[in-house]
Amino acid sequence: MPVLDGTGGVKTVTGVYDFAVDGGAAGTLTLRNGSGDSLPNEIPAGAVVLGGYIDVTTACLSATGTMAFQIEGAADLTSALAQAGLTTGLKAVTPSFTGSTAIKTTAKRSIRVVIATAAFTAGKLSVVLFYK
């Protein structure tokens, strides 16, 4: 359901990771937006992330690597997930539509993934967040 900027409705932002496009080297990567181009996904300053999910469509593979997803600060969407936590299907993120888990942005932010410990060799996923 599209919502116009400046309205009071809940909005959606999607960040996409695809090993075939983004590679799997250790480091911090700003996810591409859900429209398939290279532009970043963006949430405005002062937005409150209410909830969301990760949709893994191709299992993420690595010998010992981890992925942690963040929007405002380190691992605020997920803790470091090993390969076993990145199999196909829907995965939970920390904001779960409660005041105690919501995340408020202090500046314009993009969804990022931090790949650590070792590189990934496969994987494709979308991080979908709902914010107001």
UniProtKB/TrEMBL annotation:
<protein>
    <submittedName>
        <fullName>Uncharacterized protein</fullName>
    </submittedName>
</protein>
